Amino acid sequence: MNYQAEVEQFITLMSLAEKIGQMTQVEKNSITPEDVKNYAIGSVLSGGGGAPKTNTPLAWREMVNEFQQAALKSRLKIPLLYGVDAVHGHNNVIGATIFPHNIGLGATRDPKLVEQIARATAREILATGIHWNFAPCVAVPQDIRWGRTYEGYGADSGLVAELGAAFVRGTQQGEGGGLSHPQAALATVKHYLGDGGAGWGTAPRFGANWAPDLFGDPQRPHGIDQGITDCDEETLRAVHLPPYIAAIQAGVRAIMVSYSTWGGKKMHAQQYLLTEILKKELGFAGFLVSDWAAIDQINPQNYSESVITAINAGVDMVMVPWDFRRFITTLTDAVINGAVSQTRIDDAVRRILRVKLELDLFSRPMGEEAFLDSVGGATHRALARDAVRRSMVLIKNDGVLPITRETPLLVAGVAADDLGLQCGGWTIDWQGRRGCPTLGTTLVDALHQSRCNFHFHPQGDLPTDPNATALVVLAEPPYAEGIGDRADLRLPPADRELLERVRPRCRKLVVILYSGRPLSLGGQLPLMDALVAAWLPGTEGVGVTDVLFGDYPFSEVSPFPWPDQF
Ligand code: BGC
Ligand code: BGC
Known about the structure:
Helix content: 25-40%
CATH superfamily of the largest domain: Glycoside hydrolase, family 3, N-terminal domain
Radius of gyration: 24 Å
Number of domains: 2
Strand order of the largest sheet: 12-17-16-15-13-14
Low-confidence stretches: 207-212
Bound molecules: beta-D-glucopyranose
Number of strands: 17
Distance between the termini: 54 Å
Structural class: alpha/beta
Largest sheet: 6 strands, mixed
Mean pLDDT: 95
CATH architecture of the largest domain: Alpha-Beta Barrel
Number of helices: 19
CATH topology of the largest domain: TIM Barrel
Strand content: 5-15%
């Protein structure tokens, strides 16, 4: 069904202000429910960490539904699409199931599993009233120094295409098929196009409009994130486009545009890539949403030019973190003075309304209260545990793994008992958080459950036991986006010292690594009898012990090649 009659009826009834309202997506802290009604706003989002004051599933539901109720009181009663980054489970919500980040799912190479995870995640967001997930990220990261490497399924575009499409199907089809299914939510493939191809040293130095507290430091080196993808069109199509083709075939209805630059132009300004290729050549029928304050970067000195360029290039909905009134006034002026045509506005609005109709948002605007029990529920946690088992890659093993439950164990490393490190970025906070941000099971909790014989000391102050196997758990600190760009992927001195300290106290030494990418461990490798890449497994640490004790096999193939010196 294409809902043409319904869409055309709305177009006839709507004022210019109502049309522009539908094209506006506002961060929830920058708008009140009253404004949503008065401006006929089309979408509200929670950014990373954008929780209500009390971070419980029920409080989320109340917050989202308050905005929704306001939208339903607007003149035309068009429901709101509330969007969130549920990139490894409903990860802003305390108590939600946190699945492995995409890099770990890439190691499983299993589209069925990814589809199930997407479905479970859709259920958890719908429980909180949310119908729109800004996932999956289908970046094809080409340089593991990039802070978003772990958001990609792997370095190979075929693998990314297969798993990305699986996530779209899981999110959108529910169990019966079709967006209107009560268990379906809207998926978003991101970030179009070539975000994974940006080169080291090309990241922009961020202006005041983009996380000034984090990026204001002029000493920060230019990394990769939001940088320049320097390749010809053939390479762009061969490496970065396949996941979008697969997702469109799978029925995706939202695509988020990338902050990056190609051919000397910001992606948000690329009429050729957004309109000619995506909408015309590939027949994409959904709508394009811009990234967080991303259109502002087109011309940081001239907001009006930025808005005009982005909308004319093909952006249909604009993500406005702060001043939505300024966006609305600017776009309204641009239409009145002819810089943006009425036809372009109508096209954008048709696309947005069609998706709202396809989602059946008009008859199920509040999500699904009955799903609240499934948020962090046993079934979803069991699925996450299975995903953890299957994502663990054995990088080195000199006959020590698997270990038996009778082996005396010495366990070292803060990360062995730190759920935040185990989950990584995009967990409760945008950047993630050390310690215990949510409910879950660390490796130490899992060892307690398995009733094996172990000593744990975070700094490795352990008794010497010539029969013992040591488990040294190392982790990257949590990070998201450009904050995670890192020139040097070697272990920090404290981790190297920990290995040196534990080595003489045991017979065999096993390293379990929580990281968003392969690291350069060449120098330390001789100290290890085995090395396990556990990626960022999430809340279900028992999945790690399931594999260590040999109840399940390791995965053999890393989604990213390890650095040369390895
Ligand atoms: C990220 C997107 C995310 C958006 C909303 C941006 O900074 O690049 O991936 O969907 O924020 O949180
Ligand atoms: C938000 C993120 C967003 C980022 C971009 C953060 O404050 O929480 O969602 O991606 O800002 O600046």
